[in-house]
Recover the amino acids of this structure.
């Protein structure tokens, strides 16, 4: 809604300038859309011609962004009477100065940075607090860190360089917050001794008032003289409660003479909010009557009938309020809106796919000289034979002998021996867990030893295969650490007692991998010499 306006000329084009709540816009004469929009927060300077001059001109200096230089926009008030033009300019300048001052004095609403901004602005590899938080949330990773970094020779930078994805995932997890919800829908009154009882905590009351400002006004006007318990008991059986919840109001629902009178006020406030809402120019249906057919009206569409959409309006209002609580104030968001991005966004939605130019497919053509060979298959006549008499004789002999399945075998000793062998084979192949073969302390030591060895191998191969000469010294230290893997495995095997064989069996592939790494390093070292 415009608070001040005037007929002006901008760049020798007649038009009209409007001062709205968050911006100044100029539209050419006869145009449906504004050709120039200046946000109040971007205005750096305001000038007006003195009263001694006959021409009434106003100059607005505005910076499109914080990093760009201000741009001057000159507007000449074109009223035929000079005195009227001067009065019109003075009124507009005064209103504009008041709006700019109010904008500067208003508290700024800072939007919470998105996850992408957090990830791009922070180096997770050097964030010690984030790394400590991740280690506290993952005990297994903490044990690996203790064995590899604190007890081993791996530096923290080497350890975290291969776990950047874990740090980023943990950072995203920490930045998440629980979103709003429809509080009224979760509150269910109970009937005890023919009285309605409602469990309303102070937190729930605060959340309900934030989502439904109308309910807070009703509460302030009715309590007192009405008691708080009586107010909530009457509210949850009223039609106003069903309306705010988004439920359908039935004719049989009881009417509360004090609370239900606010139903009409809610409808009026909703209509006023819809009238004040700023519609983007790209999707402004009122700007083009051809796209707003009024021949059929809302009759064909059930959801567009005003008498049937009360519940839909209520649910939409609740959803909008919950979404607004997650974003900055609507006023601040509208003030910094980028019109170019907005038009591009909506134009992508209204583009017709059938009118777009199809891109040519980039295919690789295969030229086959003789394609007929691919469709030829060797044929074999199974009924043909060089010696048909011999074939028939074999068939007849295989079908002429009688046999019985009643007596398969009568060697009981052989059957017992086979059963014992199968039982032993099944027992040997049965799964034996570490819990059954190793004590708890030996099992934890084995897991830490295996994790540390895997970490050392990963760091070694990453540096060795990179071919970076600056990592030669760190590779030599890593080889010395890998050579001690056998000693660590031996210590774990001694602490395992009777589970020594299980420890050696579990660590055998790791020891083979360690020997392979040491051998490859020695060969490369000898080749370099």
């Amino acid at each position: 809604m415009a608070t001040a306006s005037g007929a002006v000329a901008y760049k020798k084009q007649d038009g009209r300038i409007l001062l709205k709540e968050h911006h100044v816009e100029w539209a050419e004469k006869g145009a449906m859309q504004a050709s120039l929009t200046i946000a109040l927060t971007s205005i750096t300077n305001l000038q007006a011609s003195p009263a001694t001059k006959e021409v009434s001109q106003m100059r607005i200096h505005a910076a499109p962004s914080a990093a760009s230089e201000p741009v001057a926009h000159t507007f000449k008030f074109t009223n035929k009477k000079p005195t009227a033009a001067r009065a019109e300019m003075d009124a507009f300048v005064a209103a504009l100065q008041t709006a700019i001052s109010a904008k500067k004095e208003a508290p700024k609403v800072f939007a919470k940075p998105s996850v992408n901004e957090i990830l791009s602005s922070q180096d997770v590899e050097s964030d010690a607090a984030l790394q400590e938080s991740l280690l506290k949330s993952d005990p297994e990773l903490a044990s690996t860190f203790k064995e590899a970094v604190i007890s081993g020779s791996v530096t923290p930078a080497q350890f975290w360089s291969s776990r950047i994805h874990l740090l980023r995932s943990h950072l995203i997890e920490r930045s998440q917050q629980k979103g709003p919800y429809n509080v009224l829908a979760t509150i269910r009154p109970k009937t005890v001794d023919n009285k309605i009882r409602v469990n309303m905590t102070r937190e729930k009351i605060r959340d309900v008032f934030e989502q439904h400002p109308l309910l807070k006004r009703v509460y302030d006007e009715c309590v007192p003289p009405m008691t708080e318990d009586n107010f909530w008991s009457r509210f949850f059986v009223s039609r106003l409660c069903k309306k705010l919840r988004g439920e359908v109001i039935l004719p049989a629902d009881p009417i509360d003479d004090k609370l239900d009178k606010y139903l009409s006020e809610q409808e009026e406030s909703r209509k006023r909010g819809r009238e004040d809402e700023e519609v983007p120019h790209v999707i402004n249906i009122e700007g083009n009557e051809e796209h707003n057919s009024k021949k059929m009206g809302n009759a064909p569409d059930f959801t567009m009938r005003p008498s049937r959409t009360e519940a839909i309006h209520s649910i939409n209002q609740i959803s909008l309020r919950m979404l607004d609580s997650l974003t900055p104030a609507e006023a601040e968001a509208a003030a910094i809106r980028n019109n170019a991005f907005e038009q591009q966004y909506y134009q992508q939605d209204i583009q017709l796919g059938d009118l777009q130019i199809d891109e040519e497919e980039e295919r690789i053509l295969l030229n086959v000289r003789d394609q007929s060979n691919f469709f030829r298959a060797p044929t074999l006549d199974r009924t043909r034979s060089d010696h048909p008499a011999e074939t028939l004789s074999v068939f007849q002999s295989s079908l002429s002998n009688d046999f019985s399945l009643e007596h398969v075998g009568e060697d009981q000793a052989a059957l017992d021996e086979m059963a014992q062998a199968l039982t032993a084979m099944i027992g040997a192949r049965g799964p034996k867990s570490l819990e059954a073969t190793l004590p708890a302390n030996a099992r934890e030591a084995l897991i830490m030893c295996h994790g540390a060895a895997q970490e050392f191998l990963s760091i070694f191969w990453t540096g060795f295969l990179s071919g970076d000469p600056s990592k030669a010294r760190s590779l030599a230290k890593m080889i010395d650490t890998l050579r001690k893997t056998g000693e660590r495995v031996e210590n774990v095997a001694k602490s395992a007692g009777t589970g020594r064989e299980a420890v050696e069996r579990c660590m055998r592939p790791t020891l083979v991998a360690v020997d392979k790494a040491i051998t490859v390093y020695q060969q490369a070292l000898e080749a370099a010499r």
Observations:
- The CA atoms of residues 483 and 519 lie 11 Å apart.
